[in-house]
Structure formats: C-alpha cells, structure tokens
Design brief:
Length: about 725
C-alpha cells in the first residue's frame, strides 16, 4: 500500500516543479537572507534573529486591505508556537505533539505531513503545554525536535525520515519544545525539564548523519566524577551542597539562540535552576553558573568563550532563555556590535557580543526584586523583597517573567525593539522540608509551590476576573535600546499574547490572547488593522513573498504556560489554525465561540469542610499546572468541574490507575494515595456545585450582583497594584 506521504508528494509534483528553486539551504543562504527577502530561511529569519522582514509590499497605507488568503485546520486544540519557514515556495510548520506540515505557501495545498508519534504519556514532562516552536533547514532536509527528546531529519520534498536520534536520557523528564538551529553543517538543539529535575545542556549533531559532534553542559554534575571540561570545573566553584547534582541542577537551553558568522560565536540562553529556590538548591550560596545566563560558544567545538549572568543565584525562575537579537547600535558616538535581550527578570540588556561586556541594563517593566543593575559589577542590586528564605514575599515579576519565550523584533529604521511584555506579581517562599519528587512532578523548592489554594479565599468568578485583569497585564512595548527607554506601548486585555514581526515598511504585527491579529505603526503604535482569529494567539507572525505578492502568516492556537492553566484569561474556540493573509485576500474561516455549560447537575457534595480544604491543597500541588489554579476557565486541558458521570465514577482509576495514560493523563499513584484522591474529588465536586449554582442563577438582580462583584474586583486589583 502506498504511504499517504508518498501519495501527497506525487500529487504535488507539478506544484513543486513550478516553485522557484534556489538550491539547498546552507550558511551562505541564511547569512545572505536579505538577498532573499521573500523567504524565511531560519527561525528568526536570519542568524541575527531580528525578525525584521525586508518586504515593503504591505505598508501603513494599504495594510487595511489585508484579508485571509488561505487557512489550514491543524486538528489540535493544544497550543501553537511555531515560526513557519518559507523556502522556495514551500511553508514548513509544526504543531503540538511535534507534528510537521509542508504546504504550498501561495495556495495552502498540503504537500506532506509527518507525525513523530510521540507517546501521549510523555506530555506529563512538559511544564508548559506540548508545544513546538518550529523547524530548521539545511541541505535538502528539514529538522524537528520532538517533545520526547528526539531530533529528526526529514526530506524537504517528501517528509521521509532521513535519520532519528535520541538526544536525552529517556529515564529522565526531558522535553524539546524549541526550534533547532542549523549552523555550519550542524543542527543545534537544547531541551527543557528544569522544573522536574534534569541537568541542562545543548548539543550539536551532524546534519547529514545525525551523529553527535559536541555537547556543552550548562551546570556541573556529580563532583565525584571527572568534570567534562575546565569550564565545568570553574562553574562547580559557584555551587554548594549536593541537592543540585543529585537532582539535576537545571539550566536547560530550551529556546533562544543566535549566531554571529563573523565572530564565529553561537549564543545560547540558559534557563532556571532545579529546584527554583537557591536556598534549597545551593544552601551555602554561590552564583550557580550558568543558570540564567547568556553563554557564547564556539559552534565548531562547543567550547566556552564567555558568559554574562543576568540573574546570579536565580530563585524566581528568571530564565535567560528569552529571545536574543544581534544588532549594530551607535552608542556614545561609537558603533557597537551588540546582543540584546529582555529576559524574564525585567531588565533590558545590551551586551558587547564579542566579549560579553555589559553596556547597559534598564528595567522595561515594573519590577520589585531588584532596584537596578550595577554597571561596574554587572550584577543586579536586590531589594528586601528578593529574600523569601524566611518568609513569603510577593515579588514582581512573576515566575513567567516580564517577557517569556514570545520573540521580540528589531526595526532598524526606527531603532526600536518591540517586546511582548507582561506585568504581574506572585508569592515566592522557601520549602521548610524539601523532598525531591522524581518523574513528571514540579520541584520548585517553594512552600506549597507558591500556589496553595488555601491562601486564596473563594470569590465569585466576576470578581476574580476583574482582579486578575488588573494584576496580570500584557503589553507591547517599543523600546529604544540606545537610550534604554520606552518610546510607546500598547496595553492588552490579556497578559499572555503573541510574538512580534516587524517590516521595513514600518509595520509591527502581533497576535493577542483575546483572539486578534493586529498591525501597528512601528513609529507610533497606532492600530492600523486588526482581524478576528477565533482563538488566542501566542506564536509570532512571519512574512514572505511569492510572485511579487507579500503574505503574513501566523499559527493561531491558544496554549503555552498561561493557555494551559491560566485562570479566567481567555477561551479557545477549540480549533487551532495556520492563518495566511495577503492584500485583497477574500477567504474566510469559521469562528465559533466555545462556552462551558454543565448539561446536568454534578453529584451531591459529600466531603467535609476539612476534606474539601485538604483536597484543594492537593489539587493545587498536583493538578493545577495543567487543569488550572482554583480550577479557572481558559485552559486547553479540561476544566474538572465539568466531569461527566463516567469520569466521576472512574476518578480514582484515572488519577491513580492511569487508565487514560494513552491520552496523556498518567497515573499519579507515586505522589497521592486513595485518601488523597478522595479528597481531591470532594473538592472538585464542591467546586462543580458552586459553578452549577452560578450558571443557573438568572434575573436582573444576578446581573447586578455580577456587576458589583466586577467593580469590587477592579478596586481590589487597583489597590493591589499600588
């Protein structure tokens, strides 16, 4: 029987032959990306990762004429985070569970599809949804990293597997969500998993064979074993105790990279510690290199060249894995070759990319953990709110940062970097008696993981909505990296929004969590065009050109960390799509609102107040990261208040028996016993009954009450932001 992928390749032969062919992708093509303005050859368009399209067909004057050219339903309800590549008229994109699709970029015709068949049970190891940020291209191959830790080479014309290598220890909870990078005949990939307890590294694999060329560890291992290099010997002097090496240490390289061909330097962003908390992870102190650092490596050998640590001894999940951009800036009359980053910790950094020297650092959002960065030492000056070793502190930014993985963009004509930013706070604390949990369980070193349900009294949904919207705000910030100040900003209704694209014609494109794709003036931030996408967007748009016609493409699929479990933020319509726009486009796609309505009354609540309270705390510690803290609406995983009769009946078999592990809901028998499961169930039934009463309340008085709750929530949220 002929395979579907082969049949698609045969049927699409004429379309492939008609496309403009430029030859195999190599370093010269990616370095000379501006000479192929219509292509998008690598993750950030070029090695500098500036995400600025040279195309000028769509302008501030005609952008209002944009319409949908074509769309593709991805048949997933999970998050989409990929930056599609467009090479020789073919678009290569990825969806959740690391699936790869190739389309005719002009018509949308599906050319081939590859499913790596990731076991759904592996999803328990993915902290922030089973997402994938895209592919790399080199030679005649397309490369994808999978959520279960494989790196796979696919032939660009057919999707046929050329090689498939495992890059992780399968006995540990590693994942891959980031896009690979293709540099000098090697495919570079890192991984995730620091929250669970793994040791971070980045590796290079031969593009033709898949053989590993080198591996650079980001944190030291067992001191009783030989160090992998003098660099690891040096890093080990910045750690204390045995907790870190016994349980991984963290430092995963799960997203951002950039490359300077002239300097022959690969830049990697390093993540958080394992556990988060430095007083648990390294009780004797130390900076804990190379956590939360930008590290420069020789891409030929993986040898260390320099580093800059944005958050020494990080204790808040303030990763430096956020998007890095290479650029040329005039600073004090001198042209400087720089690397720019706005990591989670709230400071915008400009570094000399040859040496790692700190040039400047200023806060781009409101923060409370540090007052400033000392330019003499390069270190942040911590405030009293940074120390949560003895008591809980409410600190900003929250653990998701002032900027997360969503890419920035650098418009060279305006000199502005556009940051998809956030403002939010959260409580941080230190576990009194820390015990590491093996496998797919969070190990944060926080008391109650900083999310103890009992700390948050039950309040009406309307009030909770209002408070959250006041305390968790999303922004698009236009930042001047030379003056280190904001030029303009746009406030969003949701905290979690998409990455950014800019064009040389003076436009900025960003998708939003409230289901829009928006075009702004790069100079002023004025909204010039917007369209309803039917689902929240977190991915960054890209732009390409075919036959003289410019397109804008974006993966529209609500998900990621906030989409997975954020309470009362936004709802997906249940369909994630690839959307492609052009001037005069006249296609349309269905937009259907999704409402959660209980069709029948939940079971009667039989749990005691003590059992319900205990069940809430157990839920927050074990279930909330996927099903939502305080069981809020908005997540892409089912809200457990809406369980049907069969799910209620099989609750213990699901939670401890693992009967749904093939669907991704693995057994939690290693961390909860039968009484625990019963109390969690009591809590969920109690919450479901409360929701049932809310949904069946009606009348003008009920609407008035909700309005009053919203007003109170706004007032409470306003006072909490002071």
């Amino acid at each position: 029987m002929i395979k579907l992928s082969a049949l698609l390749a045969i049927l699409s032969l004429n379309a492939l032959l008609a496309m403009p062919l430029q030859g195999a992708v190599d370093g010269a093509r990616i370095t000379g990306a501006n000479s192929e303005a219509g292509a998008w050859l690598s993750h950030g368009r070029n090695y500098s990762e500036d995400r600025e399209s040279p195309l000028t067909g769509i302008t501030p004057d005609n952008v209002k004429e944009l319409g949908l050219a074509w769309y593709f339903d991805t048949h997933t309800t999970r998050g989409l985070e990929a930056s599609p590549l467009i090479i020789d008229g073919v678009m290569y994109s990825t969806t959740s569970w690391s699936e790869v699709f190739a389309h005719n970029a002009a018509s949308g015709e599906l050319l081939w599809h590859y499913d790596p068949a990731v076991p759904r049970a592996w999803g328990i190891n993915a902290c922030c949804d089973v997402v994938n940020r895209g592919v790399a291209a080199w030679g005649d191959n397309i490369y994808v990293g999978t959520i279960d830790g494989r790196l796979i080479a696919l032939h660009k014309d057919s999707g046929a597997v050329q090689w498939d290598v495992l890059t992780i220890d399968p006995d540990k909870p590693y994942t891959i969500t980031g896009a690979p990078r293709a540099i000098k005949g090697k495919i570079i990939i890192g991984n995730g998993g620091a929250e669970y307890g793994v040791r971070g590294y980045v590796g290079a694999y031969d593009a033709q064979t898949g053989a590993r060329v080198w591996r650079f560890y980001t944190v030291p291992g067992n001191p009783a074993e030989p160090y992998e290099s003098d660099t690891m010997r040096m890093a080990a002097t910045t750690w204390t105790g045995d907790q870190f090496w016994k349980n991984g240490g963290g430092g995963t390289v799960w997203d951002s990279m950039a490359f300077d061909p002239a300097l022959n330097l690969l830049y990697i962003g390093v993540g958080n510690g394992s556990p988060w908390n430095r007083w648990v992870r390294s009780p004797g102190g130390g900076d804990n290199l190379f956590l939360s650092s930008v590290v420069a490596l020789n891409p030929d050998t993986g040898a260390y060249v320099w580093h800059y640590q944005t958050t020494p001894a990080d204790s808040w999940d303030f990763t430096a894995t956020q998007h890095m951009i290479l650029g040329e800036l005039q600073i004090e009359g001198e042209q400087r070759s720089v690397i720019m980053q706005a990591p989670k910790n709230g400071f915008f950094y400009v570094l000399d990319r040859a040496t790692g020297e700190l040039i400047s650092a200023e806060p781009y959002t409101a923060i409370s953990w540090a007052s400033h960065v000392d330019l003499a030492t390069g270190r942040p000056v911590e405030t009293e709110l940074a120390d949560h070793s003895q008591q809980q502190q409410i600190t900003s930014p929250w653990a998701l940062g002032s900027h997360n993985w969503q890419p920035m963009a650098f418009n060279k004509a305006t000199g502005l970097v556009f940051i998809p930013a956030m403002e939010a706070s959260m409580p941080f604390s230190t576990a009194k008696d820390y015990v590491h949990k093996k496998g797919g369980h969070f190990n944060l070193g926080q008391q109650g993981a900083g999310l103890k349900g009992g700390d948050i009294p039950p309040i009406p949904d309307a009030m909770l909505d209002a408070v959250i919207k006041k305390l968790m705000r999303g922004k698009l910030i236009a930042w001047d990296p030379v003056a280190q100040r904001q030029r303009w900003q746009v406030e969003h209704t949701t905290v979690w929004n998409g990455g950014v694209l800019t064009t040389q014609s003076g436009l900025v494109f960003q998708g939003t969590g409230d289901q829009r794709l928006v075009a702004y003036s790069a100079a002023t931030g004025e909204v010039l065009w917007q369209t309803d996408t039917g689902t929240g967007i977190v991915a960054p748009p890209v732009s390409f050109e075919i036959d003289g016609e410019q397109y804008i493409a974006v993966m529209a699929g609500w998900g990621g960390a906030v989409g997975l479990s954020g309470p009362n933020i936004i709802q997906s319509n249940g369909t994630s799509r690839l959307l492609v726009y052009k001037l005069g486009g006249s296609a349309s796609h269905p937009i259907e609102s999704k409402r959660f309505v209980m069709k029948q009354a939940p079971p009667t609540s039989l749990g005691s107040a003590k059992a319900i309270d205990r069940g809430e705390n157990l839920y927050m510690g074990n279930c909330a990261r996927c099903h939502g803290p305080n069981i809020g609406l908005g997540g892409v995983i089912p809200d457990l208040r809406y369980m049907n009769a069969d799910t209620h009946r099989l609750f213990d078999d699901i939670v401890r028996g693992g009967i749904y592990s093939g669907l991704g809901m693995v057994s939690f028998a290693d961390v909860v016993d039968e009484r625990d499961t019963q109390d969690i169930h009591h809590y969920l039934i109690d919450a479901a009954n409360e929701r049932w009463q809310q949904q069946h309340a009606s009348g003008w008085w009920h609407d008035l009450l909700n309005w009053i709750y919203a007003v109170i929530g706004n007032v409470v949220g306003w006072f909490m932001t002071l």
